[in-house]
Recover the amino acids of this structure.
C-alpha cells in the first residue's frame, strides 16, 4: 500500500514536470496573412529648419459667444520653422499626446508681440490667418511660457523671424521691385481686408488690459499644470 502511494506521487511529480517543460518550450509563431509595406508619413516640415523648439501654453480669444472670453487652445511643443527656399517663417504648435495642430500661421513683418499685463511670461498678438482649424481665420492669441527665460527666448527668436521675413522672404523683399524696402501696393491691397478684420478683434487699451488680466487669472488657476 505504501509502495503504491509512492508510485502515484512519483507519477504525479513527473507529469507536473513534463507539463511545465512543455509550457516553457512552447513558442508559437504567427505569420501575418499579408505583408504591409512601410509608409513614410509626411509632416510638411521636411523642407524647413527649426529656429526654435519650446514648450508653451496657447490661448485664443473667442468672440463667437454672447460674451467674449479667453479659451485654452492647447499645451505642447511650439516651433518656429524657416522654409529653406522661400525664407518664410511660420509658427507651428502641436498638443501633447494627440499631436493635433493647435497653431499654424506665418510670421509677417508687422506682427507685434504685446507683453501680458501682470505676467512677464506671456504675450498677446494678432494673427492675420491661422490654419490650425479646417477653416482659416484671423485670431487673437495669447501664449504663455513656464519661465521668464523661455519667454525672453521666444521674443528674441520671434523678432529674428520678423527680420528674416522682412529682408529675405520673396513675398516682402522683391529684388526686382524699385521700392524694395516697402510692401508693394498690390500686395498690401490683397491683404488689406484681412488686416481690417484682424483689427476689429483687437481691443482698445482699456479692454486690452482687462483681457490680459484674464490671462493672468487663467495662469494662476492653471499654475499647478506647469
Amino acid at each position: 500500500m505504501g509502495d503504491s502511494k509512492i508510485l502515484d506521487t512519483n507519477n504525479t511529480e513527473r507529469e507536473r514536470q513534463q507539463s511545465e517543460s512543455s509550457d516553457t518550450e512552447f513558442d508559437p509563431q504567427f505569420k501575418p496573412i499579408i505583408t504591409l509595406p512601410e509608409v513614410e508619413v509626411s509632416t510638411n516640415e521636411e523642407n524647413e529648419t527649426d529656429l526654435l523648439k519650446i514648450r508653451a501654453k496657447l490661448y485664443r480669444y473667442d468672440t463667437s459667444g454672447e460674451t467674449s472670453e479667453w479659451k485654452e487652445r492647447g499645451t505642447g511643443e511650439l516651433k518656429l520653422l524657416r522654409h529653406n527656399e522661400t525664407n518664410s517663417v511660420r509658427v507651428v504648435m502641436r498638443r501633447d499626446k494627440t499631436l493635433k495642430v493647435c497653431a499654424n500661421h506665418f510670421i509677417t513683418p508687422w506682427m507685434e508681440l504685446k507683453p501680458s499685463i501682470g505676467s512677464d511670461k506671456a504675450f498677446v498678438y494678432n494673427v492675420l490667418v491661422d490654419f490650425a482649424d479646417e477653416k482659416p481665420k484671423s485670431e487673437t492669441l495669447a501664449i504663455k511660457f513656464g519661465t521668464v527665460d523661455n519667454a525672453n527666448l521666444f521674443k528674441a527668436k520671434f523678432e529674428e523671424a520678423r527680420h528674416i521675413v522682412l529682408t529675405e522672404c520673396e513675398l516682402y523683399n522683391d529684388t526686382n521691385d524699385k521700392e524694395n524696402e516697402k510692401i508693394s501696393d498690390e500686395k498690401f491691397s490683397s491683404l488689406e481686408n484681412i488686416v481690417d478684420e484682424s483689427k476689429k478683434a483687437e481691443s482698445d487699451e482699456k479692454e486690452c488690459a482687462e483681457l490680459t488680466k484674464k490671462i493672468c487669472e487663467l495662469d494662476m488657476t492653471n499654475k499647478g499644470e506647469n
